[in-house]
Design brief:
By secondary structure, this protein is of the alpha+beta class. Helices cover about 20% and strands about 30% of the residues. The longest helix has 14 residues.
């Protein structure tokens, strides 16, 4: 039995999230079907993190077990032959059987895009979230500093989250503007359900001037979701990359850049 790891990129628009659901088109369903055709046998995949409806990924990581022998190129090209154009396998690698796409991960990096203009973009309408009021990036970055390090993120935890602990370690939050587009990068050891989108919701209210930067600290310390802001929309969220221990020799995370468009 072999364990194969794949890097997967997809646009979430048009799919009902990552996880398979009865009678619905999901990213997981399409990837499993494609790999099963390449393997000529059923394949069950496991991912680093389930993305919601409308959320995208440049660096989703999955693994599966198979007794079939294929080289890396065959897994990549074969799967992509059967996948929709909005889903692509970028790389493949055989690893030891102790690897797990979710449980072996040591950090995850998400990026959120806001199109900050009174007129939304027709081209990017399902790739970014539009915010009509002008946002102050400096105030948002000041607020983000209160969320760095290890904290109880209950105030940023979505209803239905199944994590046993609300504690997470946030390594960085970087906010940049390039024209109309604001990018918010968040990297942590792991994330709670809707955590990034709830952080963006708080930062947006601060950027708009509705709340001062210190409000982010007050929300965090409340440890109560009702003290936070509205959850930001899913269209602007991207899973950029997932980090693993060096012993697995997986491809490195993509280089940090302010904008991908």
């Amino acid at each position: 039995m072999k364990r194969i790891v794949l890097g997967v990129e997809y646009i979430g628009a048009g799919y009902h999230g990552w996880q398979k659901q009865d009678n619905l088109s999901t990213v997981e369903l399409h990837v499993e079907m494609a790999l099963s055709k390449v393997a000529d046998s059923p394949v069950k995949i496991y991912c680093a993190g389930r993305t919601d409806v409308g959320v995208h990924a440049l660096g989703q990581v999955i693994h599966f077990d198979t007794s079939v022998s294929r080289n890396d190129k065959s897994w990549i090209m074969g799967a992509n032959t059967y996948l929709p154009k909005a889903i692509r396998v970028q790389w493949a690698k055989e690893v030891s059987l102790d690897f797990h796409a979710r449980f072996s991960a040591i950090a995850r990096w998400y990026r959120y895009f806001i199109y900050n203009s009174v007129v939304h973009s027709a081209i990017l309408h399902d790739r970014v979230t539009c915010h009509y009021h002008t946002l102050d990036v400096n105030k948002m970055q000041a607020a983000a500093s209160y969320l760095l390090g290890e904290h109880d993120f209950s105030s940023f935890r979505g209803a239905g989250c199944q994590s046993k602990s609300p504690n997470r370690f946030v390594e960085f939050i970087k906010i940049e503007r390039q024209g109309f587009i604001i990018s918010i990068d968040v990297k942590a050891n792991a994330f709670l359900l809707h955590m990034v989108r709830n952080i963006v919701g708080v930062l947006t209210e601060i950027g708009e001037g509705k709340k001062p930067p210190i409000w982010a600290k007050e929300v965090l310390e409340a440890k109560n979701r009702t003290f936070g802001a509205i959850t930001a929309k899913p269209e602007g969220l991207y899973l950029m990359s997932v980090d693993y221990p060096e012993k697995y020799f997986l491809p490195k995370s993509i280089e940090y850049k302010p904008i991908i468009f």
